[in-house]
Amino acid sequence: MRAGLYWLAALIAFAAGVPAAAQFSYDVPYVPTPPVVVEEMLRLANVGPDDFVIDLGSGDGRILIAAVKKFGARGVGVDLDPDRIAESVYAAQLAGVTDRIAFHRQDLFKFDFSRASVVTMYLLPSVNIRLRPRLLKELKPGTRIVSHDFHMEDWQPDQKSTVRKNVFLWIVPAQIDGRWRASVALPAGERSYEIEIKQKFQEIDGVARYDKKVAGLWNAKLQGDRVNFVMVDDSGPVETNLYFDGRVAGDVIEGVVRRGIGSDEKQIKWRATRIAPAS
Length: 279
Ligand SMILES: C[S@@+](CC[C@H](N)C(=O)[O-])C[C@H]1O[C@@H](n2cnc3c(N)ncnc32)[C@H](O)[C@@H]1O
Known about the structure:
- By secondary structure, the protein is of the alpha+beta class.
- It has helices at residues 2-15, 20-23, 35-44, 62-71, 82-95, 125-138, and strands at 52-56, 74-79, 101-105, 118-121, 144-148, 159-163, 165-171, 178-186, 189-200, 203-210, 213-216, 218-223, 226-233, 240-249, 252-259, 266-277.
- It has two domains: 22-171, Rossmann fold, CATH 3.40.50; 178-277, Lipocalin, CATH 2.40.128.
């Protein structure tokens, strides 16, 4: 039926003297995601009732309709093809979810997706790469991106799953690179650190300088706006680990340092402010 519609449209375009390709100049052809892959995409993204899901190139709306109907999310689909939009609207009506879903006929490259907490995509590697700078800049840290089949080159996924097809999950990282001034009230007194962080997507690495000494940042991890690392505190008679946990909000990080483990553990609040962006 669908193939028949394409041929009919191509025939009309041909008869009108318009090249068929001009009628279908989409960046990605329509291929629907199989239902088991839809399930795995939504499971991997941990979609829930608080989520706003945006499907870029939404086809017949199946990913969004499942997100809304099975997980209680809200969402928007965007597709250039008017037949796909009509199918989606009809499917949303049949599913009884029109109050929590909308479909827009628009170019995904011009669509404002910044309000998403989850972005779903079944596009192409070249399209993912064209979108990548905007995904990193415009989505809030912590936004989950799931892609059916296609990767994002050197932006490694945070998780990968295979249920018939590859599904990749990325969590948009906060921008944390640069130099930070952090102070921590250690038992031996307040200590001020200058922490230098280098970042490539969600991968981070760094050192801390204090009192003309240098300390490594061990096990440094960034997931969305959440940063964790370990430093060794040499201020007391016995060296002790400092487990840093913080949330990044622009040029400020705030959180808790756990000093020591088990019955020795003490929690200390810490705060850092960015003093220079990445060089
Ligand atoms: C591979 S299909 C995926 C459909 C759906 N997301 C799914 O997984 O079942 C890609 C969709 O992207 C749409 N598309 C291609 N280029 C587009 C563009 N520039 N803007 C919006 N939609 C586009 C196509 O019409 C098609 O429906």
